[in-house]
Every structure is written in structure tokens, then in C-alpha cells.
Amino acid sequence: MGRFEGRVAIVTGGGSGLGRATARLLAEEGAPVGVLDLAADAADAVAAEIVDAGGSASAFACDVSDPGSVEAAVAAVAAGLGRPQMLVNSAGIGGFSRSEEEDPVRWAAIVAVNLTGTFLMCRFTLPHLLDGGGTIVNIASNAGLMGQPFSAAYCASKGGVINLTRALAVEYVDQGVRVNAVAPGGMRTPLTKGFRLPEDADLDLLRPVMSKLGVSEPEEVAACVAYVASDDARYMVGSIVSIDGGLVAYGGGFPKPKE
Ligand SMILES: NC(=O)c1ccc[n+]([C@@H]2O[C@H](COP(=O)([O-])OP(=O)(O)OC[C@H]3O[C@@H](n4cnc5c(N)ncnc54)[C@H](O)[C@@H]3O)[C@@H](O)[C@H]2O)c1
């Protein structure tokens, strides 16, 4: 019997990368999964993969930055699959820019998806979690725990996710709802494919955010998310779990490679 037998999970950004890997793993271990994504086709494809593999899943189109869309999607999961007991907030966007050139519209979009979107999903899922217990795992980033150049909006949004996690964790600690965050470093996903560094960017500034171990596979991080969501992590409350190849631990940054 899997760790999540019959426990309904909602995974945002479930159509790609870490969200996809997490949705597949939770389903493999028995969870009926609501796969939420702005990209409806991608959510459909992942739900179909899960069903083909013998699991249970349904896809729901959802823009996490839109309160009406979030409310409707959470209600649809509850009506279609049953009471949500787990929420994984993996939807996210980003991009590089010099801060003095950042487009205020893009700043607002990054904060709206990464931070406000995470809050809205918690806001509308919490009533279900409180009705019998549950858990939330927010996906933060090493960029929420350290400075990353050319990424002010992303860093600010992920820093916000980290303290949002702590705030919710203490608010609900005695009401049967555990809230934690997982903070990955670089993962091999489509997220960064469209990122372009500003012209003449000093690459040395980026060395501290590049692990000696390269990037992780999303499946490795999904395994960490599943542990945090499982009952084995009963005593884990408000934790920010780094899985980043040593980036935050190193602090000062990895030294230059030998010439
Ligand atoms: N890839 C990395 O190197 C890395 C590192 C640290 C943290 N993270 C975080 O991990 C999480 C997952 O990222 P990923 O690498 O799997 O990226 P990804 O691009 O592969 O997946 C993100 C998914 O979120 C969806 N999405 C975007 N905007 C949305 C919206 N408004 N509403 C609903 N869904 C939306 C996208 O359609 C996509 O399917 C993100 O929160 C990201 O910030 C990623």
C-alpha cells in the first residue's frame, strides 16, 4: 500500500517539470491527483500519463494568479476527486533582467504567479485541509534564501513564499494542517530554457548559484516533496528543505574552476 492511498492531492504547475514529476509520484503511491496548470493541454497529458500507468488523476485548467480561477479549480477537484488532503504549489515563472531595466509588468506577473498564486491556492484549499487534516508543500527556491543576480522579482517572490510558509505553518500547527516548503536549486526542467542573461552580464556573479554537482532531475526533488507531504514527516512544520547541491550551504559561492 502506498503512502498516499486514497488521499486526494492537488499539484499546481502539474503539466511540466517538478509538478509533473510530483503528480506522477504521488499517484504512483495511491493519491488521486488533481493536475492543475495554466497550460490545459499539458495538464491533460500528465493526467493521461498517470491514468495509463494505472493511477487516478484529472486535469484542471487553472491560472493560480486569478482568485476566481483558483476557487473554481479547487471546487472542481473536490467535486470530482473528493476532499483535497495535500496541496503542492509548484506553478512558477521567472526570467533574468537587470533590475534598473526590469519591466514593472513582468515584475508584477512573477510576483502574482509565484507568491500571490501560492497564497491563493492555500487560501482556497485550506478549508478542505482543515476539515479532517492535510498538508501543504510550497515550492520555493535557493533564490528565496540567497541573492541571485538579475533575478530580483524571482528572488523576492520566492523569499515571500518562504515566509508565507512559516506564517501558515504556525497559524495551523494545532489544527491538523502541516505547511512546509522545499527549496530546490537548479533542476533540469523547461523553466529556464527561455531565460536570457542581460547583455555583457558578469558571469562570475552567477557562480554562487551554480552547484559543483550541476543540476538535479525533477524526480529527485519530487521524492523530497513526497517525503515532506507524507506522514513520515509528521514533526516537520514550517521547515524550508533545501535540495540544491550545496548552494545555500556554501553561502559565499563556489570558487572559480581552475584555469
Ligand atoms: N527549474 C529550476 O531550476 C528551479 C529551481 C528552483 C525552483 N524552481 C521552482 O520549481 C517550480 C517548478 O518549476 P519547473 O522547473 O518545474 O518549471 P516548469 O516551467 O517546467 O513548470 C512550471 C509549470 O507552471 C505552469 N504555470 C505557469 N504559470 C502558471 C499559472 N499562472 N497558473 C498555473 N500554472 C502555471 C506552467 O505552465 C508549467 O507547466 C517553480 O515554482 C520554480 O520556480 C525551479
Give your account of this protein's structure:
The chain is an alpha/beta fold and 259 residues long. The protein has a single domain (8-250), classed as Rossmann fold (3-Layer(aba) Sandwich), CATH 3.40.50.720. Helix content is 40%, strand content 15%. The protein contains 7 helices and 7 strands, in the order βαβαβαβαβαβαβα. It has helices spanning 17-28, 40-52, 67-81, 104-130, 152-172, 218-229, 247-250, and strands at residues 8-12, 33-37, 57-61, 84-89, 134-139, 177-184, 240-243. The chain has a 7-stranded parallel β-sheet with strand order 3-2-1-4-5-6-7, sandwiched between helices. Helix 5 links the parallel strand 5 (134-139) and strand 6. Helix 1 (17-28) packs across helix 6 (218-229) and helix 3 (67-81) runs parallel beside helix 4. The structure holds nicotinamide-adenine-dinucleotide. Nicotinamide-adenine-dinucleotide binds at residues 12-13, 15-19, 37-39, 42, 62-65, 90-94, 113, 117, 139, 141, 184, 186-187, 189-192, 218.
Report the biggest beta sheet as strand number plus sense, adding barrel if it closes. Answer: 7 strands, parallel
How much of the sequence lies in strands comes to: 15-25%
Domain count: the total is 1
Average per-residue pLDDT, rounded, comes to 96
Structural class: alpha/beta
Q: Which cofactor or ligand species appear?
A: nicotinamide-adenine-dinucleotide
Question: In order across it, which strands form the biggest sheet?
Answer: 3-2-1-4-5-6-7
Helix content: 40-55%
Helix-strand string:
EHEHEHEHEHEHEH
The geometry reads as globular
- For the terminal residues, how far apart are their CA atoms? 53 Å
Output the CATH homologous superfamily. Answer: NAD(P)-binding Rossmann-like Domain
Count of alpha/pi helices: 7
Provide the gyration radius in Å. Answer: 18 Å
CATH class descriptor: Alpha Beta
CATH architecture designation: 3-Layer(aba) Sandwich
